[in-house]
């Protein structure tokens, strides 16, 4: 039952999807997968066409009805409780799978974040969002109903770091606003600047206005990065890179690099939200998954604000709990 549920759920995320592609996604042989998809087809849970397999309305309804039961059977509810205790959090959401091995799990992280964000919305909301592929996944699953009788303003939490345009905070905010019927503002400044440029830029009227809005955010959506990955993405200089390595940094968020104990070993001068700003924000959603992010997540959680809700996957959760 778990195997068939996993196959059906994977088809729903990747549809229309071919059998070979799906087999690679699931790490399953095509022969075994063919047998299982034939069963799902005979039960009228999926359609099989030349363009690929897709989930029927009955299949989608079954997935929704089975979700809570499958979480219980797979032990996710218990994992969430253990992770709360291990990281000192009041709220944790764990989704099935490991986003390192199954890319579609990132969509599940996005969906879980969207559900929690919707529950936190009030009448007027300023939502600050960082960049990255995980935040882009959140944008992909937002729908117009999320803004019913609410005013949403999406603002980038910080400047850009030269990553792929689709994963920059400005682009993600624009997409979130488009998909929800909300509004957005842009912050066209680099993430990392010299002291001289920083003083000049932050006093520009248009930038100052956006920075004021960012500081007024009542919801923050952010990712957690691996230290070396983020340092390389920022094209960090030799001296700073040596400092990060010497400090044994494993995680990064908002330009701060943390070692395994959660101590800050390096800070980049960034324009936008700072770590100390998070402690006065009502709802902070940290979204990161994959076993490879486990150290980074654990390190950041040592300095997280009390309002933090961690949204992660089984891959990261199991790795963190294995270190207890």
UniProtKB/TrEMBL annotation:
Domain (CggR N-terminal DNA binding): residue spans on this chain: 1-70
Keyword field contains Transport: no
Name of protein: DeoR family transcriptional regulator
Taxonomic source organism: Heyndrickxia coagulans (Weizmannia coagulans)
InterPro entries attached to this UniProt entry: CggR_N, NagB/RpiA_transferase-like, SorC_transcr_regulators, Sugar-bd_dom_put, WH-like_DNA-bd_sf, WH_DNA-bd_sf
Any coiled-coil regions, as ranges: none
Keywords: DNA-binding, Transcription, Transcription regulation
A matching Pfam family: Sugar-bind
Gene Ontology MF: a single term: carbohydrate binding
Family membership noted in the UniProt record: Belongs to the SorC transcriptional regulatory family.
Sugar-binding domain: residues covered: 72-322
């Amino acid at each position: 039952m778990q195997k068939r549920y996993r196959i059906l759920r994977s088809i729903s995320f990747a549809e229309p999807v071919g059998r070979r592609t799906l087999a690679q996604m699931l790490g399953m042989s095509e022969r075994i997968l063919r047998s299982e998809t034939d069963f799902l087809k005979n039960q009228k849970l999926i359609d099989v066409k030349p363009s690929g397999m897709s989930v029927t309305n009955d299949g989608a309804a079954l997935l929704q009805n089975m979700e809570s039961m499958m979480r219980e059977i797979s032990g996710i509810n218990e994992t969430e409780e253990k992770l709360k205790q291990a990281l000192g959090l009041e709220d944790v959401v764990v989704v099935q799978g490991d986003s390192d091995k199954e890319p579609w799990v990132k969509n599940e992280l996005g969906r879980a974040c969207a559900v929690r964000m919707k529950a936190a919305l009030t009448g007027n909301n300023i939502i600050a969002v960082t960049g990255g592929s995980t935040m882009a996944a959140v944008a992909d699953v937002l729908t117009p109903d999320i803004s019913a009788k609410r005013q949403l303003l999406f603002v980038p939490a910080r400047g850009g770091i030269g990553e792929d345009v689709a994963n920059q905070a400005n682009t993600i905010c624009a997409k979130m606003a488009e998909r929800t019927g909300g509004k957005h503002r842009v912050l066209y400044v680099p993430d990392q600047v010299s002291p001289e440029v920083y003083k000049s830029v932050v006093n520009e009227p248009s930038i100052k206005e956006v920075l004021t809005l960012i500081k007024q955010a009542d919801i923050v959506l952010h990712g957690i990065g691996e230290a070396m990955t983020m340092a390389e993405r920022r094209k960090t200089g030799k001296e700073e890179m040596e400092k990060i390595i010497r400090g044994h940094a494993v995680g990064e968020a908002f330009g701060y690099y943390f070692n395994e104990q959660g101590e800050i070993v390096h800070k980049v001068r960034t324009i936008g939200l700072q770590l100390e700003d998070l402690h006065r924000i009502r709802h902070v959603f940290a979204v990161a998954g994959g076993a490879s992010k486990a150290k980074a997540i654990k390190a950041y959680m040592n300095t997280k604000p009390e309002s933090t809700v961690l949204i992660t996957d089984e891959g990261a959760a199991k790795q963190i709990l294995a270190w207890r």
